[in-house]
Every structure is written in C-alpha cells, then in structure tokens.
Amino acid sequence: MSATPVYSDPDQPARFAKAKEENNQRYLDITTVYDPSFLKGKRVAITGANRGIGLALATELVEAGGELIALVRSSSDELEALKPAEIVKGIDVTNDEECKNIAGQIKGGPIDILINNAGYFMEEVETLDNLNFPEQLKTIDICACGPLRVSASLINGGLLKEGSKIIMITSQGGSVSWRTVQNPNGCDYGHHMSKAAANMMSVLLSQEVKSKGIMIGVFHPGFNKTEMTAKYKEIWEQEGAVDPSIGAKRVFYEAGRLSMETTGKFINCEDGLEIPW
Fold this sequence. Notes:
The protein has helices at residues 12-21, 25-28, 52-63, 77-81, 96-100, 102-105, 133-156, 179-182, 189-209, 244-257, and strands at 43-47, 67-71, 86-88, 113-116, 165-169, 215-220, 266-268. It is α/β, with parallel strands linked by helices.
C-alpha cells in the first residue's frame, strides 16, 4: 500500500481528475467531513466580507451560529442581510492609520478567529509586454502587507489572545516550487510575487506569536468561482472550481483542524495536504 502523500499535486487538472477517479469525498464533497458546530458562539472577524469568498465565509459563519465582525472598506446589501454582530467600515488594508485603529473600533470583546481574506488580482494577464509596476506594488501591499497590518492591530490591541487563530487566505500561486508546473510560460508577476510575500509574512508571524499561543493558518482556499477568478472561467470546470459557498466550508474545515502543531504550514483546502513553499 502506498504511503499517503504529504504534498498536494501541483497539476490542478490532474489533481481534480485523480480525486474523481478515487472518489475522494474529502475533495469532492466537503460536507462529508465538515462539522460547523465548532463555530457556534465564536467571534470571527473577516476582512473583505462584503463580497466573493469573504461574503461566503461570512454567510457560512452566521448560518453556523457564529458572531460575525465584518472588516470592510464598504458594506453591501448581502452583508447587511446577514445582520453581523459588528461592521467596521472604512477599512483600507493599505492604510497604516486606518488599520492601527481597527482594534479600537471593535466593541464586543476578543476575537476567536481572524480571517485575512481581502485581496486583489490585476485583471489583465501580465507579461513582459505590459509590465505594470504600480499594480505589482499595489497587489503586494494589499495581499501581503495588508494582512500583517490587520493582524498586528488586533494582536497589539489585545483582541487576539492565547488559543485564537489567524487564517491567511493566500494562494497556491505563492508556491515558488509549483511555478514550473502551473506557470510554464511565466507571466502574472505581481500576483505571484504578492502571494509568495504573503506566505513569507505568515510564517514569520507564526514564529513571533507562537509564544503567545496564537495559531496561524496559511491557506490556499481552492479554486473558487468568483469575480477575481473570472479571467479563468474557461477552465473552471476542467480544474474543479467550486461555488464560494463550498470554498468557505473548506476553509472553515481546515480552520477547525488548525493547531499549535500545524501553525505556519501552507495547506491546500481542497485536499487538506501541504503545498511546498
């Protein structure tokens, strides 16, 4: 009998095809293993909770009986309909002062789980012919520096205590090892650099807060059908892209499993396996 693989497969179509061939229910139907009861009564702060995967996470949380603290630049009708416990508006994760003040704007007490979900992806495919350095720096600021600003505010503000968790929604696109498989022709410089930077930040943070008993999950949420991935919609079905509601369950399943033993590890929420750096 072959040993259980430690690392996920970098070939997305092959990974999805193998899951179907093996009838891997963990991959194909997360509801067969996911129990949301651990979220009941938990105070969970989510950045970018007004749309996309962030809204799906917020919806899943509220349906499970958790308390939603939405950290957003602006709200949305869909978010308001969830009746969050708190909505902190006007949060631009690239703004130092706005992020420093987040902890002071949360009134309901400590946070059990912080999900850094706010992200950005340049719509055009970036090649040597259209390099956009301002967009690259913007992407890195939002995707790598932004989660650190938010996390620092809540940690330094005393809202993340021993036993709390920080979930970093990064991407398999941040794996340097996987670029030769997933990007054989290169391209999309800003996106991949930002995710690699986010991963580095997450590991360094996990080391710094380990003594505080705070856990850091570095998660690839899987391939989700959102506005941000619409540029790849022609391959959604081939590569197993899912509705954000499924992606949200995958993320929370791994969040529930996160421990001090697995803090700082880079996990693929599709199959629960590690992704190499």
